[in-house]
Design brief:
By secondary structure, this protein is an all-alpha fold. The protein has one domain. 51% of the residues lie in helices and 0% in strands. Helix 1 runs antiparallel to helix 2. The longest helix is centred in the N-terminal third of the chain and has 19 residues.
């Protein structure tokens, strides 16, 4: 899958989030509602991004990273935390499991992950 295809999928998911999920009372901040048709559509759209055929050139399989989180990392974290195993999220973002738990807590407003 090319970088452009991945970007197109992420933009489609982001558009659904902006249009339908932003003001929804049932959506939690760190996961997508699996009961909602829009949540199901986002999961179907993003399924190719979850593939296990990752190669070393894929920027989502990076060496361990430190420093500030990019908006793309937050987006990935918000939409995959609780859906994908923490080890997969760690591999995709290049962050340690501890770092991911801290970031989720920060995104949730200080609550423990």
């Amino acid at each position: 899958m090319t970088k452009e295809e991945k970007l197109r999928i992420r933009m489609q998911v982001s558009e659904i989030l902006d249009r339908h999920c932003r003001w929804c009372q049932h959506k939690s901040y760190v996961s997508v509602c699996r009961q909602c048709p829009y949540g199901q559509q986002m999961q179907e759209l993003s399924m190719p991004l979850w593939g296990s055929d990752a190669d070393d050139d894929d920027p989502y399989f990076r060496a361990t990273r430190t420093g500030s989180w990019e908006p793309e990392d937050d987006f990935y974290l918000i939409n995959h935390y609780g859906v994908q195993p923490i080890e997969v999220i760690s591999a995709r973002t290049g962050r340690s499991i501890q770092s991911i738990h801290k970031r989720i807590a920060k995104l949730k407003g200080g609550e423990p992950a």
